[in-house]
Amino acid sequence: MSSVIFRKFGEELNAFVGRHVVVVAGDGKEYTGQLVGVDERLNIVLDKVVGAGAGVFKVAMNGENVREIRLTERPFDYKALGERLNRVFPGLVSVREDIGAIIVMEKIKVTDKGVTEGNGLAADKVKAIFDDYVREPRK
Questions:
Q1: What CA–CA distances, in Å, run from 124 to 110, 114, 119, 136?
Q2: Burial of 19 from C-beta contacts in 10 A (0-12 / 13-18 / 19+)
């Protein structure tokens, strides 16, 4: 059971990579930036850092000094988009949150940026569904 929990924690934490976060250090100081790397010990690398002082653009922090990591942007809802795609392509949609993608028909890859692999009429349809999905207001 603990390995399942650890794996789920890792998947959730990996979803923060590439996103804007606020990191609270052990001394209470906050650093804002883009999380570009993290490991199982919470050692992190932040890019485009605010709060580290003048002339500092990137910070690597020891996990023992990380008290909290806050995601400051809404995560992409792969499940909701996957359900919508599955209505059009029943049984041909695989939601892969572990890699941050949805695979349609084993040849079309959709990420939070749109269709990144695949072409043809099916890929055009997936793109149209994605575009409609991201235009809708989120609750």
A1: 12, 11, 7, 19
A2: middle
Domains assigned to the chain: 2-71 (2.30.30.100), 78-135 (3.30.310.60)
Per run of 10 residues, the mean pLDDT along the chain (length 139 residues) is: 70 83 92 91 92 83 93 86 96 90 96 93 96 84
Calculate the CA 35 to chain-centre distance.
10
- Coil, strand or helix: which one is 118? coil
The pTM of the full predicted model, rounded to 2 decimals, is: 0.61
Cα–Cα dist 133/131, whole Å: 5
Please give the span between the terminal C-alpha atoms of the chain, in angstroms, as a whole number. Answer: 33
How far is Cα 5 from Cα 127, in angstroms, rounded to an integer?
A: 34
DSSP strand E in 52-133: where? 58-61, 66-71, 93-96, 101-104, 108-111, 114-117
Tokens of 6: 């650890």
